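Honest question from a wet-lab person: if I give you the sequences of every part of a complex, can you actually get the arrangement of the whole thing, not just the pieces? Trying it with mine:
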Amino acid sequence: MESLAASFSASTTTILNSSSKLHHHPPRRFRFLSLSLPIFHKFKTCHKFSSKFPNHLNLLIVRSSSSSSITAKPSPEFQKKGGSDRKEEDNKLRALRELFTKPGVNVDAYIIPSQDAHQSEFIAECYMRRAYISGFTGSAGTAVVTKDKAALWTDGRYFLRAEKQLNSSWVLMRAGNLGVPTPSEWLNTVLAPGCRIGIDPFLFSSDAAKEFKEDISKGNHELVLLYDFNLVDEIWKESRPTPPKEPIRLHDLKYAGVDVSSKLSSLRSELRHAGASAIVISMLDEIAWLLNLRGNDVSHSPVMYAYLVVEIDGAKLFVDDTKVTPEVMEHLRNAGIELRAYESILSEIESLAAKGANLWLDTSSVNAAILNAYESACYKYPWKSATKSRRKKTVNLDSDGQSGGPCAVYRSSPVSLRKAVKNDAELEGMRNCHLRDAAALAQFWAWLEDEIQRDVILTEVEVADKLLEFRSHQDGFLDTSFDTISGSGANGAIIHYKPEPDSCSIVDEKELFLLDSGGQYIDGTTDITRTVHFGEPSARERECFTRVLQGHIALDQAVFPENTPGFVLDAFARSSLWKVGLDYRHGTGHGVGAALNVHEGPHSISFRFGNMTPLLRGMIVSNEPGYYEDHQFGIRIENLLYVKEVDTPNRFGGIGYLGFEKLTFVPIQTKLVDISLLSVADVEWLNSYHLQVWEKVSPLLDGSARQWLWNNTRPLTKL
Amino acid sequence: MESLAASFSASTTTILNSSSKLHHHPPRRFRFLSLSLPIFHKFKTCHKFSSKFPNHLNLLIVRSSSSSSITAKPSPEFQKKGGSDRKEEDNKLRALRELFTKPGVNVDAYIIPSQDAHQSEFIAECYMRRAYISGFTGSAGTAVVTKDKAALWTDGRYFLRAEKQLNSSWVLMRAGNLGVPTPSEWLNTVLAPGCRIGIDPFLFSSDAAKEFKEDISKGNHELVLLYDFNLVDEIWKESRPTPPKEPIRLHDLKYAGVDVSSKLSSLRSELRHAGASAIVISMLDEIAWLLNLRGNDVSHSPVMYAYLVVEIDGAKLFVDDTKVTPEVMEHLRNAGIELRAYESILSEIESLAAKGANLWLDTSSVNAAILNAYESACYKYPWKSATKSRRKKTVNLDSDGQSGGPCAVYRSSPVSLRKAVKNDAELEGMRNCHLRDAAALAQFWAWLEDEIQRDVILTEVEVADKLLEFRSHQDGFLDTSFDTISGSGANGAIIHYKPEPDSCSIVDEKELFLLDSGGQYIDGTTDITRTVHFGEPSARERECFTRVLQGHIALDQAVFPENTPGFVLDAFARSSLWKVGLDYRHGTGHGVGAALNVHEGPHSISFRFGNMTPLLRGMIVSNEPGYYEDHQFGIRIENLLYVKEVDTPNRFGGIGYLGFEKLTFVPIQTKLVDISLLSVADVEWLNSYHLQVWEKVSPLLDGSARQWLWNNTRPLTKL
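Yes, you can. This is the full assembly:
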């Protein structure tokens, strides 16, 4: 089995954002599993806040040669080289700096972030510019190059890798360490006042660019938006991978539940209500959801690179038309959607401004190129004096209606919340694919237990490969939903652990083994973590596991009034750990798309109490408390849940009370449970869950996997 | 026994604030037991947020003729008359309106709020202007008088009383009801544009005045600050009670723990650190705490009317000097504090501005008269051009240091947090007075059970009177810490219930009885609620009681990392109720002063997640979940706790883990417990608590009270 690592999944928050101003300005899309303490987090805006997608899921993808249904992407060419070709690196920097003085560029420094133009969690190889220029292949990092210096910021997960991969031309900036400046602070120090600092405005969200601009203004520097070309692409040239050309497919109505016309109609109502006449949608999962389309442009997320402009009376999809099959073309035509070239988005924005459109822009996701194009164009046209003063977060059209020229509506995307609240068909698909996923996991665990009993030596990578093989045999399997985290012993304590084939550990009977994985299926998306021991766990491991399990149970069983934001429930998942002075440094739950991104907002369950989005019926959320003992072991127990109305005997306040229903049905290893710590109710929960697991999953199994499921769903008795 | 009601305890938030903009601008001092739902609350600033003091504690004060130690205040004269003298009311309005056209006044409307000049929870009679002018005696309300209209805003607690007490000249505005305008909205409707609306600037916090000014500017009206006299006082004349003249006393160092010089020295460090050279403190409990003094000017709170100005090199107390005994004078002199007349505060502010002082002002508590005097004076002096631009929330002195003239520091008072974190002596006093208070309560409950068994007819008021009698026999008892809430049956469901002698219910063996009361002692302050049944409670009552108890236990046992804000713990107290669709519409915990105000900030435990103040070692907080079934019964179980370090076996993150220690030791009625709902751990908590109650309180008791304590501390057994 070949291991094909695609490790460049982009952080949707630049290091610029996440490290520099964490206390004051948590990035819109927060780091789900960051290393900062819960209590240091402050508020930001409420409904704009959307969950940041974890990077704890970047591991490996393997292509099983025995299965044709696996679509994991091949490793980028430069990754294979690692940081070995140090001479080449220097040449890249030299070439980049030569461009600084080119006419139309004229900059003193250039920033190369990890992102693509859509704030995607997983990005196509051709957009992995930061990795190309620096040689550093971690998923999060920002490169900053001046005329005589080059620095790379990354966080604690990647310090070791960056040390290995960066050559001597680069300075490693260990973001989060005491005294380490942010990129803007560093630039304000190393540059003489009055410099020009260039960025590719497509690669910064409008908010991030604005914040960066303000920060470097303290050093009297100017932010230069270089629209015409990306400087890294200029030197990458022929060796740059081509943008993905994979065909787009229809997402069947039986899985989507609502047709495109209805979705567009709802969206247009929201536009009218907000006083907007058009919206630019740039988040790839929002486009895929809205159009009932799925793509294949990046690993793990079934999306395609595109922008979508929806006006009151029309819609345009900006996409490489070679990806558009006749069937998709027909589908789009039926929904009244025209095709445009991906690259023509800016001219469309200018046209919208020219005709006076009130454009709805989510400045936390729409890139600075688009925002700036709109604002600049508005000034060009006759109503330019009115525009600036009429910029509002919330627009109520003035009494002069449309006559005053375009009026931007800066609000979070209305698609995000609609996408998060699943309809019956989406929930049905999620339930179904979770059972098939559970069957694959049962087969996998049965196999693994057997292998280890037979003293077969298996690495973390081999184990993950085998899991993919089992999943790939399930109907409708398409891809892993993120890089599998397969961590034995001390590696389990590394929250974002990524085993490498040549250096990873053995999975054996001596240590805890943490496995966090998920699948993309035609009808849904899974994400599950189990922690197991194949030998005799220590008392310490059992106590910690049991306390994590108690947190998992407490959250699973929570009932709460309508309109409760997720963070209210977060402490339930920590309480048992807190009692003995333990905790975990990540959130407890994230949203999950239906046959879409494994991490989505806008809701979350987290100690970051800035996310005020209430949990709504039909939302899907993970329940994944954990505990990580440095250099020893890691524990995480994760199920996916969906929010449902609970039929409580009372309805105080005349409102509904909500709770959770489980999607995930895979045994939790009872060997790791210290039953003396569990309450009677906890034991009943566990037994009831295992009964459901047996009833729902055993019909899909036979042989040793069925026997394994039986063995692992036997009830516990508390005396 | 004579019942002397003092019902005018001021709401520290005007109706103006609390009703008009609750969703967007929660008032700094939030309503602890308001009727708004948790989930509708939004954030505000973080550390500035301070807990609003509940008004659920306004009931009656009784003077026991058998005890000379009781200092409850007599009822105001006008209260006795109630709203009967309707002719006089009209005369008052007529007289008030005649003043509108007086030179130097010239207003079209005048606002009369409930407050005194210090945002006090309990105010002196002479400041009960809104009650005088309107006849309405509720604790919260705002009167607005125009040339031809008069309207009074109050909230749901007081609709019935207001209907009775207001004469036909007044319109009752039922704040919170659908479609009821706020005072500013109403004024913007009923007044022609361009009117002048007058207020007494002493009676509005700076923030409230600013907000009101902005609101009426939408109607093109002008806010007129009438400094020279209060229009109501002008017509109140001779019948107006004189300001309190009660002597100030020393708060013994053995209770205060830290001497005044040390406290002032710490405060001055904070001033220097913030770039301030002086601070005006106007909150009466902050002055009392800082100076180790106690007063007797209002019911329930041992404070004196005063302002305190602390400069780097001196301090001045603005107080009626007839209250200052030679001993207190000596005490102040030793701490370097000069005396000034209470009324001369504004001229001192002007002097401070004149000499270029950088004044620290907490705009949420300092009144608009002071703020405005400072800002106006700054403009008068040579540095006037610099002042405006140098106003900052946080001041770092410019490079030109002090030379640029005064520079205001607008921040929350630094005294609030220092006062909230109790030192060892304060905690010792709190522990001691709680045991004596518990002894009084044991005597009281033993007496009451006996009376009811003997079929003696007792009203809610008589029962509260008797409780005061028992408390008054305890060493060091001074006053009730708030008006006792004595609610039988359906009255218990009225969170702010105030029984009246001529209309209150009987306490009998048929219904639940809720008793929320507290005492002011020389060494501390108590606040306790118990709910009991003297007959056979229904299954419903037992289930609800048990779920409230489970919430109480869950919060009591919580362990949490350092720096956790109280709201993180709030859901623990609601979880058991939520499971069956029940909830309560008030917060779970408030701060309590040490021999000071029964409600203090800045911390709280509440569903209002805007209060980011972490719970710190030494803070005192109430634990009082409840459940209220309209027209049926009310349940609340309240202990006071203090925050302590917990010796956890681990210290994940290298930080401390905190928990609570109980101050209150009074039995919880086990008859009301449905043991089938309790976990084994819950039962153990209850038995352990009752064992502590017996061990700590029985030595203070003999006879029937000791027997009652024994009977009511027997362990439960869960089979």
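Two things worth pointing out. The longest strand of chain A covers residues 639-646. Chain A touches chain B through 47 residues (CB under 8 Å).
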